[in-house]
Amino acid sequence: MRLNQPITQRVNDSMRDDEWICSKTDAKGIITYANEVFCRVAGYAEAELIGQPHNIVRHPDMPLIAFAWCWDTIEQGKEWDGLVKNRCKNGDTYWVDVRMTPEFDENGKITGYFAVRRKPTPKQCQDAEALYKQLRDAEGSLETRKNLTRAQIFTMYKNSPLYALAHPEA
Ligand SMILES: Cc1cc2nc3c(=O)[nH]c(=O)nc-3n(C[C@H](O)[C@H](O)[C@H](O)COP(=O)(O)O)c2cc1C
Predict the structure, then answer these.
(1) For the chain, what is the total number of helices (H) and then of strands (E)?
(2) Backbone φ and ψ of 161, nearest 5°
(3) Of ligand 1's atoms, which has the minimum distance to the CA of residue 64?
(4) Biggest CA pair distance of the chain
(5) Quick one: pLDDT at residue 161?
(6) Domain limits of the chain?
(7) Residue identifier of the C-alpha nearest atom 3 of ligand 1
(8) Any idea which architecture 21-158 has in CATH?
(9) pLDDT in tens, 93-121
(10) How far apart are CA 66 and CA 136, in angstroms?
(11) What is the best residue among 20, 39, 54 to mutate for testing ligand 1's pocket, by most ligand atoms within 8 Å of CB?
(12) Which residues contact 48 (CB under 8 A, 6 or more apart)?
């Protein structure tokens, strides 16, 4: 887990209800496109985002297994919807209601992903905050979480109820 610091207690809710935060990545999650709303809300210039891994906006409060679930879903070529707490460049928080969608070449191979995000309601944010705290607490201290390997995170995810959501046939 990339540990982005510092974290403030301020919430940036400057995104309007009629706006979308949009980004595109390559197949590894490196940002290839960021729209103006993304840059404005996250507090980055476009040039600071393009070419960076998307965990540049990762908030340490997001549970590890949430992103394991997300990647396990989109790498199967499916769409993933979720509530994500993000970190602005200055450490503030912005919440998004995101849909991530894979893009394919003519042979059906995934070439990248795009994400569109609306502003969630305060209730959605409160509910997600409570759920993510439970999931995070089960993952251990920040120090523990920071040092877990991808394999360890995947095992935790596989043993969680989230796995069945990405593998309904299993
Ligand atoms: C199209 C796309 C959009 C993404 N958007 C976000 C995002 O807004 N916030 C975020 O924290 N991670 C986002 N991710 C997931 C990151 O790639 C990464 O898995 C996550 O930040 C966890 O990072 P970590 O491996 O450092 O824990 C996105 C991934 C893709 C493919």
Answers:
(1) 7, 5
(2) -65, -15
(3) 27
(4) 46
(5) 93
(6) 21-158
(7) 115
(8) 2-Layer Sandwich (3.30)
(9) 999 999 999 999 999 999 999 999 999 99
(10) 10
(11) 54
(12) 89
142 alpha carbon, distance to own chain's centre: 18
Q: What is the pLDDT of residue 12?
A: 97
For the chain, which ranges sit under pLDDT 50?
none
List the one residue out of 37, 90, 27 whose CA is nearest residue 59.
90
Query: What's the pLDDT at 169?
Result: 84
Q: Whose CA is nearest to atom 28 of ligand 1?
A: 54
Question: 38: Cβ–Cβ under 8 A, 6 or more apart, which residues?
Answer: 21, 22, 23, 49
Where are the alpha helices (H) located in 75-161, listed in sequence order?
Answer: 122-139, 142-147, 150-158
> Could you tell me the pTM of the whole model?
0.97
| Pocket-forming residues, ligand 1, beta carbon under 6 Å | 1-2, 23, 25, 29, 54-55, 57-58, 62, 67, 84, 86, 100, 113-115
